[in-house]
Amino acid sequence: MPQPEGAELEAVRARREELKAKYVRPRAERPAPPTGGIHHLALICRDVEETIRFYQEFLGFPLVELVENRDYAGSSHFFFDLGNRTLLGFFDFPGHEHPEFTETLGNVQHIALSVTPERFDEIRAKLDGAGVDYLGPDRGVHNSLYIRDPNGTGIEFYRERQGWFEDVHLVD
Questions:
Q1: Dihedral sign for Cα atoms in the order 108, 113, 117, 121
Q2: I need a surface site. Which of 38, 106, 107, 138 has the fewest CB within 10 A?
Q3: What is the DSSP letter of 85?
Q4: Residue 44: is it exposed, middle or buried by C-beta count within 10 angstroms (0-12/13-18/19+)?
Q5: Has residue 30 got a pLDDT over 80?
Q6: How far, in whole angstroms, is CA 19 from its chain's centroid?
Q7: Alpha helix positions (H), 34-95
Q8: pLDDT by residue (tens digit) across 124-136?
């Protein structure tokens, strides 16, 4: 997709700084969040077994539940443990045709998963060994590896602590 340049780029950057000045409060002045965090993220998959093999067998996230979707007969609803009491859920919808992934409004751009430096190196070696294409560490982002799951969802392995972004402590 084309990136803004010249005056357009400068206008975008100026607008971002206006929004930051208007809405980002210092940590000490922020109210407590209204929830306990993400319970689970629910995504759609094309093939239940392919998704299980990718997340559990290849990436190592334990499958912790597999049930019928309560509001769509025949559909599966299943969950992986991402750590830190966070679940990644999937639905399939038998009989529905799903278009190929496209990066567009209303879609998940990527899911960023916090990993230790040691785990980051292990993941990179595993991706290399399996011949899986990934981005990073590149684009000036030395702490990230990006892949796509079998459904097209972007997964980022981010070598950063929970609550931090680019070595800046954002939330406790």
A1: negative
A2: 106
A3: T
A4: middle
A5: yes
A6: 24
A7: 48-52
A8: 999 999 999 998 8
